[in-house]
Amino acid sequence: MTAWIVLPVSLSAFSITGIWIVYAMAVMNHHVCPVENWSYNVTCTEEMARPGFPKTCCTIQDIPLISKCGSFPPESCLFSLIGNVGAFMVVMVCLLRYAQVIEHSHRCWINTSALVSGCTNAVGLVMVGNFQVDHAKSLHYVGAGVAFPAGLLFVCLQCVLTYRVAVTALDYWMAYFRVALAIGALVSLILSGIFFIHESFVLQHAAAICEWVFTVDILVFYGTFTYEFGTVTNDTMMAGLQQVHHHGSGVIMGPGSRASTLGGGTKGLKSPGGSSTSTHLNCTPESIAML
Nearest to residue 63, comparing CAs of 85, 79, 86, 41? Predict the structure, then answer.
């Protein structure tokens, strides 16, 4: 058990709680309408502000998209903070997960791709959090266009890795749970994109709900790494960095020596669900095809 086990669950708890606080602030400040509101008007006459109560007349500009909730101060300040801190924590989770797999197995292109997609997701989060949609729409949409697909790719690749290194029944249940989360994220992202391009008030509101579902789904997925991070040690990150440095040194070896190096250097991946280890992590195209 290590202190790193707190990182993934902190990321999920901090980000999910934070964005819902931003939503509540936006509703109370009359910047968006409540998510349960499905009645919209083309225009609204000026109404008296009632502090502490939601708007009674809503237009398409008041649809509670996550980005819309964080467009105006004071909630925009908290929204930027969540985006920046959350992005940093995402990078830390991705690096630790990458190093954890590297520490106990040979180099794997799926693991490297997951690291790249996770860090790309973090870059998109920074852009989304710091460029509000009503003030820098182009940059905001670029950030969203980077963050959402990259986050989806990350969870899909991690599903493959989780299945490949599973040993105990609990490991496989975690793999199944992550697959379910990945499917939910994929469906909600597709539906959000389809609904968002329509001008219908109802479909726009449905797109907002799907966006919320997708975001919470991805954050819950990040939180599940608490299961593996109980076996992370202080040497885990160093092992990953040393492996990357060794690969980049360009040492040329013959086929026989390469095979013996991989065979001797591959360590068993400790499973949080048991004391046994896994040595069947194989990321060659032939093994991936078996999935």
Answer: 41
What are the pLDDT digits (tens) for 195-226? 999 888 899 999 999 999 999 999 999 999 99
On whether the CB atoms of residues 39 and 56 are closer than 8 A, the answer is: no
pLDDT digits (tens, 9 = 90+) for 88-129: 999 999 999 998 888 776 568 899 999 999 999 999 999 999
Full DSSP string of 206-268: HHHHHHHHHHHHHHHHHHTTHHHHTT--TTHHHHHHHHHHHHHTT----HHHHHHHHHHH---
What is the four-CA torsion angle of 210, 211, 214, 217, rounded to 10 degrees? Answer: -100
Model confidence, pTM: 0.83
DSSP-H helix ranges across the chain: 6-28, 66-69, 75-104, 109-130, 137-165, 169-196, 201-223, 226-229, 236-248, 255-265, 285-289
The two three-digit tokens of residue 141, written as one number:
């949409």
Q: What does the DSSP 8-state code read for residue 270?
A: E
Contact criterion met (CB below 8 Å) for 76 and 126: no
Q: How confident is the model at residue 273 (pLDDT cuts 50, 70, 90)?
A: low
Cβ contact 30:49 at 8 Å: yes
Task: Reply yes or no on whether the pLDDT at 261 is more than 50.
Answer: no
Check: CB of residue 85 under 8 Å from CB of residue 121: no
Enumerate the H helices of 40-74 as residue ranges.
66-69
CB neighbours of residue 46 within 10 Å:
6
152, 193 contact by CB (below 8 A): no
- CA 50 – CA 171 distance, rounded (Å): 52
Question: Kindly report the CA angle at 114 between 98 and 138, in degrees rounded to 5?
Answer: 130
Query: Cis before residue 255, ω within 30 degrees of 0?
Result: no
- Give the strand pairing for 269-270 and 277-278: antiparallel
